[in-house]
């Protein structure tokens, strides 16, 4: 997608490439191997999200074949732990990472039910958590976390931007009954009321629900002009499909990482009413030089047998990009470390790192200065709260930038 406000100057291509590379680009990855850990629901009954880990592997596949990371040019092994969307499995993954003597960081984990316990384990181990899914207030406030976006406030962004896009004030909210979704929707309702929107109601349902049709009907009966939804990608897909079966044509907005690509592509023009409050450009958009580098490295990982890295229409490619960007943050912080790379040194380096992912209007994200906590005391660890509104275009089978809606900053939407 090309928009003038997102078009990069030629210099951005050079600067973006340099920013993504560690120091000493002429050297080879000849140093010792260090570990980074990640986890997500993989093969779980109610969720299967291996894409972020594939993106991380894409980044380090390339770095391992060239410079490595840090001034000692370390190779990186990516350790992937599969959760089953239970507090016990998430806690076990965090403990494995903490107990690994070669671990230098936890990268882009998806923690759903045990976010504070996981943060406490990482904090005690001195193991920085880089770009966790910032899905609840604990992630946004615990010092060991270094999120690069603001998933916790995506639903608030949905409420405000959708109202502006559709020129209506009647909004309904729906979510699965898990702490992260409930907290995000509570923040969204607060933002909606602050923006003087009319909250017509909220529908909540268990994460184990196999048929969401009754809940979709409950929401339709409240007559919202749009719905803000918080669920897993599979749950979002189930909601959209149920709405289509019922003939409910109310627009829906979700946050980053909750996109069901297979369902969207299968619904035809019905899916034109699907929106995302996002911090990340679509992987196919033009005007972002660093995306070309990402696509090449993701392809190499997919060609190597990791199909979760494939940039195909049926894959959650946004999560692949998020994992890859997280790997760039690790490399940029590691470039500030002298001598052998340890978790303590990397943690210290993060506190003086500004992650840059391109320049000017061609940057994939704004510069993220990990040395400067957010001035909103509720969200000290949200270093980047900028969001914009994406809309699914069924004819193009891709996301486009929603017209006539300016970006918002999540920390400014709620008190």
Features:
18% strand, 36% helix, 415 residues, 2 domains, disordered N terminus, alpha/beta, Rossmann fold, eight-stranded mixed beta sheet, five-stranded parallel beta sheet
DSSP, total strands: 15
Count of DSSP-assigned helices = 12
CATH class group of the largest domain: Alpha Beta
| Sequence stretches where pLDDT stays below 50 over 5 or more residues | 1-25
Q: So, CATH architecture of the largest domain?
A: 3-Layer(aba) Sandwich
Strand content: 15-25%
- Domain module tally: 2
Give the % helix. 25-40%
SS class: alpha/beta
CATH topology of the largest domain: Rossmann fold
Query: What is the CATH superfamily label of the largest domain?
Result: Response regulator
**Spatial separation of the terminal alpha carbons:** 34 Å
Principal-axes geometry comes out as globular
Task: Describe the main β-sheet briefly.
Answer: 8 strands, mixed
Along the chain, the helix and strand elements come as HEHEHEHEEHEHEHEHEHEHHHEEEEE
Return the average pLDDT rounded to an integer. Answer: 90
Rg of Cα set: 20 Å
């Amino acid at each position: 997608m090309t928009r003038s406000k997102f078009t990069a100057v030629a210099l951005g291509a050079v600067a973006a490439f340099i920013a993504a590379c560690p120091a000493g680009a002429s050297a080879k990855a000849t140093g010792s191997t260090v570990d980074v850990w990640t986890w997500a629901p993989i093969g779980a009954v109610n969720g299967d999200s291996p894409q972020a880990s594939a993106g991380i592997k894409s980044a380090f596949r390339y770095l391992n074949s060239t410079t490595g990371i840090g001034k000692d040019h370390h190779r990186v092994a990516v350790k992937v732990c599969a959760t089953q969307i239970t507090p016990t499995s998430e806690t076990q993954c965090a403990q494995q990472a903490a107990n690994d003597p070669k671990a230098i960081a936890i990268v882009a984990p998806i923690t759903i039910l045990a976010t504070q316990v996981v943060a406490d384990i990482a904090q005690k181990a001195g193991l920085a958590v880089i770009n966790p899914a910032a899905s609840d207030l604990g992630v946004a406030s615990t010092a060991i976390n270094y999120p690069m976006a603001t998933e916790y406030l995506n639903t608030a962004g949905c409420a405000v931007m959708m109202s502006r896009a559709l020129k209506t004030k009647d909004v309904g909210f729906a979510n699965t009954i898990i702490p992260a979704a409930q907290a995000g929707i509570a923040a969204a309702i607060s933002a909606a009321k602050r923006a003087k929107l009319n909250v017509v109601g909220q529908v909540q349902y268990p994460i184990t629900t196999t048929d969401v049709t009754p809940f979709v009907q409950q929401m339709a009966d409240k007559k919202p002009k749009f719905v803000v939804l918080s669920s897993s990608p599979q749950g979002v897909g189930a909601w959209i499909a149920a709405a289509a079966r019922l003939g409910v044509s109310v627009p829906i907005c979700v946050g980053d990482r909750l996109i069901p690509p297979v369902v969207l592509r299968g619904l035809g023009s019905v899916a034109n009413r699907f929106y995302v409050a996002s911090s990340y450009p679509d992987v196919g958009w033009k005007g972002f030089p660093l995306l070309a580098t990402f696509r090449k490295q993701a392809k190499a990982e997919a060609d190597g047998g990791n199909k979760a890295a494939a940039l195909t229409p049926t894959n959650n490619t946004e999560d692949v990009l998020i994992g890859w960007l997280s790997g760039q943050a690790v490399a940029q912080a590691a470039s500030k470390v002298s001598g052998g790379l340890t978790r303590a040194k990397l943690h210290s380096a993060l506190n003086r790192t500004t992650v840059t992912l391109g320049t000017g209007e061609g940057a994939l994200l704004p510069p993220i200065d990990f040395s400067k906590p957010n001035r909103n005391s509720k969200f000290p660890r949200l270093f980047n709260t900028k969001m914009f509104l994406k809309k699914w275009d069924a004819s193009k089978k891709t996301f486009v930038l929603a017209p006539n809606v300016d970006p918002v900053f999540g920390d400014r939407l709620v008190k």
